[in-house]
UniProtKB/TrEMBL annotation:
Listed GO biological process terms: carbohydrate metabolic process; N-acetylmannosamine catabolic process; N-acetylneuraminate catabolic process
EC number assigned by the record: 5.1.3.9
Lineage: Bacteria, Bacillati, Actinomycetota, Actinomycetes, Micrococcales
Gene: nanE
GO molecular function terms attached to this record: N-acylglucosamine-6-phosphate 2-epimerase activity
One family name in Pfam for this protein: NanE
Protein name as catalogued: Putative N-acetylmannosamine-6-phosphate 2-epimerase
GO cellular component terms given for this protein: cytosol
Reaction catalyzed: an N-acyl-D-glucosamine 6-phosphate = an N-acyl-D-mannosamine 6-phosphate
Keywords for the protein's UniProt record, in alphabetical order: Carbohydrate metabolism, Isomerase
Metabolic or biological pathway, per its Swiss-Prot or TrEMBL entry: Amino-sugar metabolism; N-acetylneuraminate degradation; D-fructose 6-phosphate from N-acetylneuraminate: step 3/5
Functional description taken from the UniProt entry: Converts N-acetylmannosamine-6-phosphate (ManNAc-6-P) to N-acetylglucosamine-6-phosphate (GlcNAc-6-P).
InterPro entries: Aldolase_TIM, NanE, RibuloseP-bd_barrel
Length: 224
């Protein structure tokens, strides 16, 4: 069964830690990924060559890999070289910035798609708007994600997942749409699938203890 079919209707758990955090270590991320697998995840999304290499031998699920380089503009697998290196870790799916913004190496998204396909992997375009998704589909992206909705100047940020974007992409494209971004509860994950998402990616609410702790701390502070 191909990786797109394997994640259909399922939960892909994003296992990532920010720079400088105690959990930012390949072995730790591998263990978190293994725990997500035990919980029933349909796939794992992870970033960084070392993390992906640590996970690949022990994760028998579709692995959605990316490489974050920088923290502004196009930084999710931003160049052709980044994408090829991610594919060579053994990931079935390479996630890249799928917006229409200029890429650091001057390449086009079409060139990145072609390079990933030559490596035998699929490409997921992390998009922010319907126009991004349409453009990514036109150049051969295999999956379209709502990952960057609310994180670019041309996409307003919704309090929760951008279900309107999910529905619009499903309606306009003949490709699997992956809902990602600000999905913090099981109900929100279910709503994304009801909106037509092929699969749902959840990261912070499952794998980021600092943020989860802060939610509880904030809730206790408002009490008398």
């Amino acid at each position: 069964m191909n990786p797109i079919d394997r994640i259909r209707g399922g939960l892909v758990v994003s296992v990532q830690a920010y720079p400088g955090e105690p959990m930012r270590h390949p072995d730790t991320m591998r263990r978190v990924a293994e725990s997500a697998v035990r919980g029933g995840a349909a796939g794992i999304r992870a970033q960084g060559i070392d993390d992906l290499r640590a996970m690949r031998p022990v994760i028998d699920l579709p692995l959605m890999g990316l490489w974050k380089d920088g923290d502004s503009g196009v930084f999710i697998t931003p160049t052709v070289i980044h994408a090829v290196e991610v594919a060579r870790t053994g990931c079935e799916i390479v996630a890249v910035d799928g917006t229409r913004r200029p890429r650091p190496d001057g390449s086009s998204l079409a060139e990145t798609v072609a390079a990933v396909h030559r490596e035998g992997a699929l490409l997921m375009a992390d998009c922010a708007t319907l126009a991004d998704g349409v453009a990514a589909a036109e150049v051969g992206a295999d999956l379209i994600g709502t990952t960057l909705s609310g994180y670019t100047p041309d996409s307003p940020r919704t309090p929760g997942p951008d279900l309107d974007l999910v529905a619009a992409l499903v309606r306009e494209l003949g490709l699997p749409v992956v809902a990602e971004g600000r999905i913090h509860t099981p109900d929100q994950a279910g709503a994304a699938l009801d909106a037509g998402a092929h699969a749902v990616v959840v990261g912070t609410a499952i794998t980021h203890p600092a943020t989860i702790t802060s939610w509880f701390v904030d809730a206790t502070r408002v009490r008398p």
